[in-house]
Amino acid sequence: MTISRDKIDHVICPEVRGLSAYHVPDPGELIKLDAMENPYSWPDWLVEEWLEQLRQVSLNRYPDASATELKARMRSAMGVPDQAAVILGNGSDELIQMIIQAVAGPGKVIMAPEPTFVMYRQIAVAAGLTYAAVPLQTDFSLDKDDIAEALDEYQPVVVFLAYPNNPTGNLFDPDVIRLILTRAPGLVVVDEAYAPFTDESFMAEVQAHDNLLVLRTLSKMGFAGLRLGLLTGAPQWLNEIEKTRLPYNISSLNQLTGEFALAHRAVFEEQAAAIRQDRTVLLAGLQALPGLTVYPSAANFILFRVPDGQAGAVHAGLIERGVLIKNLDGSVPALRDCLRVTVGRPEENASFLAALAALL
Q1: Are strands 109-114 and 158-162 parallel, antiparallel or unpaired?
Q2: Tally: H helices and E strands in the chain
Q3: Residues 237-259: pLDDT tens digits?
Q4: 3-state secondary structure at position 81
Q5: Which helix (H) or strand (E) holds 70?
Q6: Cis peptide before 174 (omega within 30 of 0)
């Protein structure tokens, strides 16, 4: 089938034509340390109990449209304040899309630091909005004067702040975030995707700031295949954003699985604690290697910079040695020569460090 470029250009909007699709490589048999997943599987006894629960699902019926029971369990597990409203999404990506759809319009601006989670830009541009990126400092901190100037210049309807930031792993100064909350003319979304790996959070401040929304996900906790996210904030905002949610967006299988998993969340909290310990060991191992600049992390991954011009060769060399990590070189100027590794199981981390040492 042949479709002319002219016809594609006529039908597809220029904003989408200018984007690149989000690429997910096939890891094959490689040690997979590229996607910030929890490396620990569910214990066998938990899998057996879960499979027994799945027998109860009536797949011929639509799911609970409000996901009432799952919503209650997620509120409790994530410490959502009582007066805050909640919307669930098919991962936090869908919730980001819903927020942007709700505010979209001619001349509207979405703002975020750079570098940060790529989907803020991707979804904003696809929706026809202007995207304003505020460069981070060389240590990936957020400068209060730079962000204040950008807020005044662009007047964004939404500011997205990943906390900890992806792909840099650091936590922004909370006082700078509070400055943004007081100065921003629109919504400020604090995306806490990596909450299981840090003790810092803005969840308790949701009721203190009328323009603050907080995003959470279960993906990093150990349910990446489940695709469940939560958005919370003032009911007045969420009542409007709710209008963009597609009906039955959380399937019956996902609702039951989410409820079941959160009823056993002590298992996954123990895994998160192990990942924090493994992160400390991996960080020390990277810092001991020659020629690297290693950045601190409050997430389940570590960003590091290799010597000038070597990122591609190091990344390819790791693949040849059976390890897949993320090559960020070329994505934005601030990430020149940077690679990002997910914290895996101890034996996976050791294999990665040995392979990397052989390449340096």
Answers
A1: parallel
A2: 13, 13
A3: 999 999 999 999 999 999 999 99
A4: coil
A5: helix 68-78
A6: no
Q: Which helix (H) or strand (E) holds 131?
A: strand 130-135
Per the prediction, the chain carries an average pLDDT of 93
Q: Do 262 and 73 form a contact (C-beta atoms < 8 A)?
A: yes
The pLDDT score that the predictor gives to residue 271 is 96
Cβ-contact 279, 197 below 8 angstroms = yes
CA distance readout (Å), 360 to 156, 219, 310, 334, 356: 44, 33, 9, 22, 7
Record the pTM.
0.93
Note the pLDDT of residue 138. 95
The residue to which tokens 């994530």 are assigned: 78
Nearest to 187 by CA among 245, 122, 109: 109
Count Cβ atoms within 10 A of the Cβ of residue 260 and give its class: 0-12 exposed, 13-18 middle, 19 or more buried: middle
* Strand duo 187-191 + 212-217: pairing: parallel
Contact predicate 121/112, CB 8 Å? yes
Which pLDDT value is given to residue 26? 65
State the pLDDT confidence band at 125, using cuts at 50, 70 and 90: very high
Give the whole-angstrom CA distance, residue 194 versus residue 214: 12
- Whether the predicted pLDDT of 315 surpasses 70: yes
Q: What is the pLDDT of residue 23?
A: 63
Identify the bridge partners of residue 109 per DSSP, sorted by sequence position: 130
pLDDT band at 89 (very low <50, low <70, confident <90, very high): very high
Kind and range of the H or E run holding 215: strand 212-217
Contact 82, 235 (CB under 8 A): no
Domain residue ranges in the chain: 5-43+266-359, 61-263
**Coil, helix or strand for 260?**
helix
Query: In terms of CATH architecture, what is 5-43+266-359?
Result: Alpha-Beta Complex (3.90)
The pLDDT of residue 294 is above 90: yes
Q: Tokens in use for 168?
A: 């840099």
- What's the rounded Cα separation, in Å, for the pair 212 and 148? 17
Rounded CA gap, 347 and 360, in Å?
Answer: 20
Q: Which CATH architecture describes the domain 61-263? A: 3-Layer(aba) Sandwich (3.40)
